[in-house]
């Protein structure tokens, strides 16, 4: 009674099930890896934010690529802001989602060297191609604390680096590009300022990255694996239902053939 499984319709269904099972299992492992990545990232963020700040020059140098292990590392820098060469970074969002600029300023370190500092967010001007009003940076020598960040690239950020931008506006925070503009070496990566807090809270300091949420990836992984387990179960249920229907149809046909003739029905003529 299971010969119907060899029909074209059921063979296609079986083939589809054989494709779906490993695909769903793989999707489950993909979500599991995303969960593990998120957990590891949260641990790294928490550890690096709580670490005692170290001089930024101890972790990076001109041309240095900041490794993932140093992302968000608490750092400090003592020197002076070079406001003359500050630029703004386009299409950046504030804590409430408003679109504006990040203020990027070269910071000349005591003892030599320059690091780029992201002072925070400001709103756009009425004319987005005009340079916005940027709150003045502290004068003289200051000590700035912040989080070490890696240079932004189109590949790592997904932001397209446009070439026809207005003067002193950029799309990406990249030490190599700023080094070309300044005509002097710049430490790799940049410092995302956390202190001192600017007067009037502007520029708006960038919020610390979230190190508590792990997202729904583990739940999604379990769902995909349950779906994978449900495919063969569903196939068996459908097959048994099809068999039951075929058996019922066959029984009904047999009963119809075996039923006696109704009273008053003439007998078939005999030769």
Structure description:
There is one protein chain. The chain has 271 residues and is an alpha/beta fold. It contains 4 helices and 8 strands, in the order αββββββαβαβα. It has a 5-stranded mixed barrel. Helix 1 (8-50) packs antiparallel against helix 4 (217-258). The protein is elongated and about 115 Å long.
Tally the beta strands.
Answer: 8
Low-confidence stretches: none
Our measurement of the CA-to-CA distance between the termini, rounded to an integer number of angstroms, reads: 40 Å
Main beta-sheet strand count, sense and barrel state: 5 strands, mixed, barrel
Q: Structural class, please? A: alpha/beta
**Multimerization state:** single chain
The average pLDDT score comes to 92
**Cα Rg:** 34 Å
Beta-strand level of the residues, as a percent range? 15-25%
The amount of helix comes to: 25-40%
Shape: elongated
Counting DSSP H or I runs of 4 or more residues, the number of helices is 4
Write the layout of secondary structure elements.
Layout: H1 8-50, E1 54-55, E2 74-81, E3 87-93, E4 99-109, E5 114-123, E6 142-149, H2 154-157, E7 169-170, H3 175-182, E8 190-195, H4 217-258
